Amino acid sequence: MKKDFKQEIEIPEGIEASLDGKMLKMKKGNDSVEKKIPIEIKIDGKNIILEATNSGKKEKKMINTYLSHLKNMVEGLREKYEYHLQICAVHFPMNVSVDKTNSTVIIKNFLGEVKPRISKIAPNAEVKIEKDIISVSSSDKDAAGQTAANIENATRICDRDRRIFQDGIFITKKEKGRGLKKIR
Length: 184
Description:
With 184 residues, the protein is an alpha+beta fold.
């Protein structure tokens, strides 16, 4: 049986939300996060309302998914998402640097390779390198996670024995807002 389905989330103090067509933009101070929401959305005072008329299971799933995205946007504006990656160089010393003009991370001398490996930094993500720790932070959970995954994937080894060739860059910690989550 199809019914009308509606979910809403309250906008906390200090966060501004604006809607331009299907693009929702939230802002707090200098930080801003924007996401395209392909379902019916409107802002009513201090609430963001997601709704579907004559909805079934599929529409309810979509609304609840985008409700989770909105909650992640609010949490990210309160406190940034952080990912920590560990540089592990057993055979050859790696040089890892950030190229801010092209927004890329450059990994030189990985397993003695002459050609550097390059990974992209997503927009709105910041990358810092301190000794053998790479920190990725952003108010946008998707941008922080994708940047960390790009860096980890750039040093993936396919044709060698992983028990011997343990070189690479690996995600070791994910921090969000007030919580801490260890990966390995």
